[in-house]
Write the structure tokens for this entry.
Amino acid sequence: MAKKILVIEDNADIARLVMVNLRSKQMQVEHAPDGTSGLQQALTGSYDLLILDLMLPGIDGLDICRNLRNSKVYTPVLMLTARTSELDRVLGLEVGADDYLTKPFSVPELVARVNAILRRADQYQPAPASPQTDPLKVGVLHVDPDTRQVLLGDNPVELTAKEFDLLWHFASNPERVFSRGQLLDSVWGYGHAGYEHTVNSHINRLRAKIEQDPAKPQYVITVWGVGYKFSGHAAVQDAS
């Protein structure tokens, strides 16, 4: 089945370039010329990927991404940005974008990144009866991948989309040690070499939300000189 993609881009020439080249790869492509209409289409339509400009009239790309993730819409997002600062790119990743391209970009790179995101999304589609989708409980931590709900005892824990993805990736692979680069590749995806500090900041925020004492974590453990792992036998904590 052809992949369905929404391009949210106010520059008509760039939008046309993206659409023509993706359609040549047998993808279905729709276009929204501003942030307001783009957000509405993204919330109500069914898409395999959003290609989202950062600077848009109406609602900008960062706010669109925040709105989608807050509405529990987890469609993959490839963000386009004319800004070259590292902060802008990191902000995009931290509000829920899966990848980014800096303008001007080459068409082959665009197509490669689109294909990589779509492949990764397909790999993360769970089989209906897969035990991998069963809720996981360690100590008082309860993680449900179907509802994307996290509880500490009876208390709900509010996580961002990427924080949940990071936690579930850890929890699905207990005791396995991941380097920052491996976590970037698996959770954030293709093309983020050099942004290991993004992993650090997400792990710090995740620990602040799920650990009784973030300075002495029982779930997300640092393996010095290597990376991080998830403890599958954390001690029971007091969640009150």
Notes: The chain has two domains: 4-123, 131-230. Residues 131-230 form a domain with the Arc Repressor Mutant, subunit A fold (CATH 1.10.10.10).
